[in-house]
Structure of ROK family protein:
Amino acid sequence: MVAHSRMTVGFDIGGTNARAAVVDRDGAIVDSLSTRTPHDAEGLTQMIVEMVGELRAQHDIGAVGVAVAGFLDPACEVVRFAPHLAWRDDQPVRRDLEAALGLPVRLEHDANSAAWGEYRYGAGRDLDTWVFFAVGTGIGATLMHRGEIYRGAFGTAPEFGHITVVPGGRACSCGKQGCLERYASGTSLVDCAIDIATKGSFKDSGVYRAVVEKRASGHDIMAAARDGDQLGLAALESFSTWLGRGLAIVADVLDPAQIVLGGGVSEDADLFLLSAQRSMEANIVGAGYRPLPEILCAELGSRAGMIGVADLARELL
Ligand SMILES: [Zn+2]
């Protein structure tokens, strides 16, 4: 069929940058664009229209997919709440975009989009009951069962990042305290380092001053750990212990055969995977009397969301 040779566009819209990729039927990116994310709803729509227009001038585009970092309704028609994007209050984003573009549009949650990309073209190929667990600025997760994304009744499942693991603990951007993502995300590496440094440990560390003056980023701490810096390594150990507890919760609740670790932090998994696995084994219920989920690393990196949502949009051709 002619329609299947057409390309689709996948958007990944973050709070700072928006990226778009033209994806072919084999999941390969043949062209891409990126820009700053506008901070108003009209600007967002206009940005998508302009980027699709630019890509359409070069490629035969049949449908558009948009990965959104926020809550959608289970039918993926409206954006209920996206903390870093201007769409909200049940705006019918999918319908509005279709009208503006004159093309079929598929909306999807960003973690679900990346999970779908890994399922079709990456580490999740041929897996049956598995969880995609993305560790980046925050934590996003998707449960996939027999080729279907599990959404829950209201479209928000599963929100492992905001499970309370320390009552009264670190403040979270969601308004709660002590959420898992405040202990086991890329940004939490900074908090782990601050907690250790303010106890007066590792004063001769290369990142000590930047940490206590709160200038260090998660990337700085990870880089320090990679260089063997003692404060960096201690922060990473705290992070990976918490990550393992998080993975144990995932296994206890959902019992997946595999957990695919994605997100920006997973690119440094060689530094913490063993430690996180040990922590998972120490915290899982029935350890020693049950099979453990296999922990795999994602393969598509930061392109997973665009490839996944472009592939989902292909169903509209
Ligand atoms: Zn939270």
User: Anything to note?
Assistant: The first strand starts at residue 7 and ends at 13. Residues 230-254 form the longest helix (25 residues). The mean pLDDT is 94.
